[in-house]
Structure formats: C-alpha cells, structure tokens
C-alpha cells in the first residue's frame, strides 16, 4: 500500500476521498436516527436505508451516463451536486417533513452509485494494473476504519446539536472532495460521447458481466451468498437479546469488533489478491463468512467476538477482490456501465436479504437462521474457490526506486590532423 501512496496523483485522489468517505460515514446512520426521532417508528427509520438502496434499479442508466463524459470533471460535479442535494435537510423540523428525508436519501443513493462508478474509472486511469489491488485495499481499510467511528460520531453529533450541523459537516466533506480532485491532473481518455446510443448500450455492462467467465462466476457466487448475508442485520439483534441476554445497545460493541476485523482484512486484501488472484480473494471472503455465521448460532461472548472479527475481515476481501477483477477485465470505455451494473447486482440481493431476514427472525429461531447463513455462504465460497484459476495472481509491484544518473567519462582527446601541404 505504501507503494501506491508514493504516486502523487493517487495520493491527491486519496486525500479527496478521505473527505467524502468521512461525510458518508457520519450521514447514513444519522438519517435513520432522524426519522426515528421525528416519528418514533422503527419501520419508518428502516425505510430510510431502503430509500438509499432503491435507486440501484437505475444502474444501467447511471453507467451509461458515466461512460459518456470524462471521469475527473464528472466526479467533481457529482460531489458538488451531492452537497447541494443535502440542503433541503435544513428545512426538516417536524414529523410531516419526513418525506424530505426520504427524497434526500433516494437522491443520495443515486449519487453514491454514480460516485462509485466514477471512482472505479479514475483508479483504473491513475494506477497501473499491478497496483490496483493495493489502491482498492487502501481505500477499503480507510472505509472500515471510518465505520468504526463515523456512525457513532454522527449519532453523537445529532443527539448534541441536531441534524442541521450534521448536514453542514457532510456538505463540507463533499465540497472538499470536489476541491481536492479539481487539483488532479490526469490524462482523460476520450469519452464515447455520441457513440453511446442509450437504447442499445444500457445493457452493455450486464452483457459484459455475463460474457466474461471470471466476472460471471464471481457475481453468481457472490450473489448466492448475498441472498442470505443480509439476514445478519436483523439476526444480530436477536443474538444480543435472546442469546447474550444483553441490552440492544450492546450491538454497537459487536459492530466495533467487526470493524476491527475489517481493518485487518483491508490491510491484507492486496497481498491476498497477489497470492490467490481476484476470484480466489473473493472466494476467501465469502467462505470466511460461513464459519462466522455458524459460530453465532452458539451464543457465547468470546465466540461471538471471534465470529465478528472473521465476518469483518471477510468484507474487504470481498470488495477488493470484486472491484479489482472488474477494473482488470473491463475496457475503460465500458467501465462505468460495468461498475454500476455490478453494484446493482450486489446491492439488490442484499436489500432483499435484509427485508427477508427481518421477517424470518420473527418466525424462526435465530440460531437456525444463522446456521442457514453459514451453510449457504460456505457453499457459495466453495463454488467461487473452484473457479479461482479464472483469474491469475497479480504480479508484485516494483517499488519506485530513484537511480542516480552517472556521469559518463570524458572521451579521450583525438589528435587534430595536420593539414597536408
């Protein structure tokens, strides 16, 4: 990771992303808390997350737009637009204004999808192929670290001063990201422009994902695991309540433990890609989720902490493996559509899984559901591992070493010939 940070252009992009990721980490949970505070309803608070995920259905259109224009200017405009779309939150003051939060949450979800697709393209332009895993791994490590403190900080700020200051801080983060990336000098690849006819090209990302063997296997295996991974969002509350016999607030402690595991997974994700390839790294991440879920079927605190460390480490491996595979196997002119389509294909099953888990936990014993999650993700991991040879390990990056120029010895003097008389 230090190697990729030695590249000035990536270091500048990374600085801008720090600002936007911090804004994102404090905003997401606070929006749901705000709705809960205004309405007193858990269901309406949970609907805030659904509002953020709902725009994923527009992924083909978003990817088409991203591939039409140069990445850097589009990224700057998208960050400024994200800051602007948060301004209606300043008018929220009573329960009747909840609809404003939902509209902002949906627009933010659309912005998140757009920025994710743009970021994949920017990283592909700035970083050589052997450093893609390092760049993705570094970003995931920081994202996991922010998840340790961001949501708690956002909730604390909301409790102390209300939503207006939180909104102002989030807006500042997105404006700062736009300002920093504006300083970036990157050779822009020619956009496809008028060549992208929306009627023919909206499905190009999906066609590429289906036609490339490694990407196809990665999304089938991960999609299978995603169908049950979301169960844990509801099951963890039942685990704490009925298993550990503790207050619901103890979930925050377990989320922190999971965040520590995420930091570890992020630090080792690039090395895993170099050793096992992208599909192998994705397989390792999905497989780790299996024993973690099975361990949570037996409610013991020390075992639960170990399980959540495993689950936390799994998430960066999954994300880095999939993102690096997409960047390596996709032409630059198609990357926006492919990245947006893959985000939708991953987030869709997760959204369904979260809703299904919330329903099933009220009908079945949480231990049985954890066992189902463990067995399903293990099977998905095995399916992915059998296809690991579809992607080759990434070569180890060569450190940037400064080689001093050596002075050449002066040429020997040649005698000047005498003129012939």
Automatic annotation (TrEMBL):
Q: Which residues form the Major facilitator superfamily (MFS) profile domain?
A: 1-190
Q: Where in the cell is it found?
A: Cell membrane
Q: Which domain of life is it from?
A: Bacteria
Q: Name one Pfam family in it.
A: MFS_1
Biased composition of type Pro residues is found at 407-421
Name the membrane topology term.
Multi-pass membrane protein
Enumerate the residue ranges of region (Disordered): 395-421
Q: InterPro entries of this UniProt entry? A: MFS, MFS_dom, MFS_trans_sf
Alphabetical keyword list: Cell membrane, Membrane, Transmembrane, Transmembrane helix
Which spans are transmembrane here?
Answer: 12-35, 47-66, 73-93, 99-123, 156-184, 219-240, 249-273, 279-298, 305-326, 366-385
This one is known as MFS transporter
Naturally occurring in which organism (per UniProt): Micromonospora rubida
Q: What is the lineage of its organism?
A: Bacteria, Bacillati, Actinomycetota, Actinomycetes, Micromonosporales
